């Protein structure tokens, strides 16, 4: 009789152990994987599931007591849930929510200093990402969705990039386009001179202008510098073609 009772007790203990072992907890995340972008207001929904018996309650490590919680940590954080089943058994599960830094693209330019002359362009380049959108003066540039952009207009440029599920803007890059100077010569028509006479040629004035007078025997390239002739006026006494090269802020224009 004692052996019989012992076997019954042992069987009950084994069944109870099997039931306890069958009670498990798990966590599902949305999105999956459980990644969010720092500073972009996104969150992750964590949903706990208990298997093996009737669930009586949930206790999350952040203080939540419902089956599902929404979290938006500032740093990568692991959340643990303890599920209590009917009869008092418990089971635990954990889920790590990864906080990914937002991308911070940079812009480089060719030329390095994005100051150019009218008619020229600046090549703007940014770091590698999954997608791109360039902006000029705060507005999207239609079709500018490549890693590089050729800028031909003055203004403030920035680029918006997406890396995985995160996105971010670059700092502003200002492109400056300097106007070309005016290069006219007075008189601007052919002048016939007698031997030993001369004609005074005058280039248009301008604040900050510098001048270099040029000569060509037939009006075709090459045009060669007339040594030492860097004033606004030039006294011509040779047969041939004379023009002027005018420079302002590194931008050059010729009269020929």
Structure write-up:
This protein has 3 domains: 2-100, Sandwich (Immunoglobulin-like); 107-178, Immunoglobulin-like, CATH 2.60.40.10; 185-254, Immunoglobulin-like, CATH 2.60.40. It contains 1 helix and 23 strands. It has 256 residues and is mainly beta. The chain has one helix spanning 2-22; strands at residues 24-30, 35-37, 44-51, 55-60, 68-71, 77-85, 90-100, 107-110, 115-117, 122-126, 131-136, 139-140, 148-151, 155-163, 166-169, 173-178, 185-186, 199-203, 210-216, 224-225, 233-236, 241-248, 251-254. The strands form 6 sheets. Strands 9, 11, 12, 14, 15 and 16 form a 6-stranded mixed sheet that branches. The model is unreliable at 1-20 (pLDDT under 50). It is 8% helix and 48% strand. Strand 6 and strand 7 form a beta hairpin.
Q: What do we call the CATH topology of the largest domain?
A: Immunoglobulin-like
Please name the CATH architecture of the largest domain.
Sandwich
Structural class: mainly beta
The total count of strands amounts to 23
In the CATH scheme, the class of the largest domain would be Mainly Beta
Estimated helix fraction: under 10%
Q: Encode the helix/strand succession as letters.
A: HEEEEEEEEEEEEEEEEEEEEEEE
Shape: rod-shaped
Q: Are there runs of 5+ residues with pLDDT below 50, and where? A: 1-20
């Amino acid at each position: 009789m004692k052996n019989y009772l012992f076997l019954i007790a042992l069987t009950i203990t084994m069944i109870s152990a099997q039931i306890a072992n069958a009670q498990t907890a798990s966590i599902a995340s949305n999105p999956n994987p459980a990644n969010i972008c720092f500073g972009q207001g996104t969150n992750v929904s964590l949903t706990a599931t208990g298997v093996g018996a009737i669930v009586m309650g949930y206790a999350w490590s952040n203080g939540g007591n419902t089956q599902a919680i929404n979290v938006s940590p500032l740093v990568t954080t692991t959340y643990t849930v303890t599920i209590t089943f009917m009869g008092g058994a418990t089971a635990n599960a954990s889920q790590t929510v990864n906080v990914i830094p937002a991308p911070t693209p940079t812009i480089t330019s060719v030329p390095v200093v994005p100051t150019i002359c009218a008619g020229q362009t600046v090549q703007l380049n940014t770091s590698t990402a999954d997608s791109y959108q360039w902006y000029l003066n705060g507005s999207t540039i239609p079709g500018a969705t490549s890693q590089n952009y050729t800028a031909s207009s003055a203004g403030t440029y920035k680029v918006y990039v997406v890396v995985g599920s995160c996105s971010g803007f670059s700092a502003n890059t200002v492109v400056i386009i300097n106007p070309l100077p005016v290069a006219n010569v007075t008189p601007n028509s052919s002048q016939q001179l007698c031997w030993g006479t001369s004609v005074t040629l005058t280039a248009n004035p301008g604040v900050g202008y510098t001048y270099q007078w040029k000569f060509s025997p037939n009006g075709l390239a090459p045009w060669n510098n007339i040594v030492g002739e860097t004033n606004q006026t030039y006294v011509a006494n040779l047969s041939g073609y004379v023009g002027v090269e005018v420079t302002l802020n590194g931008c050059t224009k010729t009269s020929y």
